[in-house]
Design brief:
Belongs to the class-I aminoacyl-tRNA synthetase family. With about 325 residues, this protein is an alpha+beta fold. Helices cover about 40% and strands about 20% of the residues.
């Protein structure tokens, strides 16, 4: 309190001069360097106030605080543009997935600009650098033996000549018999669903009955990491600031054992898989989208690795 009273009495003239970072903002030796991201909003709709409050506004507030503290701060975000939700919206509006992304990226950018959100860079995931970095990470995982191949049974629409992603399938929920359940979740009982478990499934596009068909996919071999992950997790719990909910969920994953996680999808709209036998597939958006933070920064500055591969700062 005494320090605050003293600072107030000395007035604004006694405050340190505001830090003016170079453009683009890069880490500076000897300064506190802060990289801030906010969750990439999905690009198939107009963002509402809840979206902005949920992630963008809190990150913006923190970025402004950091700059007031004269910390060298970079705040990046952008639109998440690949995946089945984009394809679904494209069908609904009679546009191509790229046209949908262009349309809603502009809508998002205009809204955040109107709100005065202080992004240093607001980008998107449908860029050449996104493909380059995502495929590079994939190749590194492959070279280190952290990927495996397995057969997955999926619903295929013979009339549309395509495997149906979760959101392109509707049917009766196997748990509560709700007749309009999606292939990933029932909106009535809330349970997660595997699309092949649906009763009376039909293709959302043409309404025909799909057939169960085996297809090959690539998985992250997460069980290989469990022994290395557990000691790291214990140390992080001891030294980090984890919420009770985050601790509980992570404990349940460890207790049940890490499982292989599929990283590919039988879709056209996405980052192509650069491996023979899988070149007609794309990366599952959950694998692809987090890499967007790196690629958006890379589109902002060629020296992006100074932010993302620089643990000393």
């Amino acid at each position: 309190i005494t320090a605050a009273v003293g600072a107030w009495a000395r007035g604004a003239a006694a405050l340190p001069k505001p830090w003016q970072p170079q453009k683009p903002v890069l880490p500076v030796e000897g300064m506190r360097n802060v990289l801030i991201t906010s969750a990439l909003p999905y690009v198939n709709n107009v963002p509402h106030l809840g979206n902005i409050i949920g992630c963008v506004l809190s990150a913006d507030t923190f970025a402004r605080y950091c700059r007031l503290r004269n910390w060298n701060t970079l705040y990046v975000s952008g639109t998440d543009e690949y995946g089945t939700a984009t394809e679904t919206k494209a069908v609904e509006e009679g546009l191509t997935p790229q046209e949908i992304c262009d349309k809603y990226n502009a809508v998002h950018a205009d809204i955040y600009r109107w709100f005065g959100i202080s992004f240093d860079c607001f980008g998107r995931t449908t860029t050449a650098l996104q493909t380059t970095i995502a495929q590079d990470i994939f190749q590194r995982l492959l070279a280190r033996g952290f990927l495996l191949q397995d057969t997955v049974e999926q619903l295929r629409c013979q009339r549309c000549q395509r495997f149906l992603a979760d959101r392109f399938v509707e049917g009766t929920c196997p748990f509560c018999n709700y007749e309009e359940a999606r292939g990933d979740q029932c909106d009535k009982c809330g349970k997660l669903i595997n699309a092949v478990e649906l009763k009376n499934p039909h293709c959302k596009l043409c309404r025909s009955v799909p057939v169960v068909t085996p297809t090959q996919h690539l998985f992250l071999d997460l069980p290989k990491l469990q022994e290395r992950f557990e000691p790291w997790l214990e140390q992080s719990w001891a030294t980090g600031d984890w919420t009770p909910n985050a601790r509980y969920i992570t404990r349940s994953w460890i207790r049940d054992g890490l499982k292989p996680r599929c990283i590919t999808r039988d879709l056209k709209w996405g980052t192509p898989v650069p491996l023979d036998g899988f070149r007609d597939k794309v990366f599952y958006v959950w694998f692809d989208a987090p890499i967007g933070y790196l690629s958006i920064t890379a589109n902002y500055t060629e020296e992006w690795e100074r932010w993302w591969k620089n643990p000393r700062q």
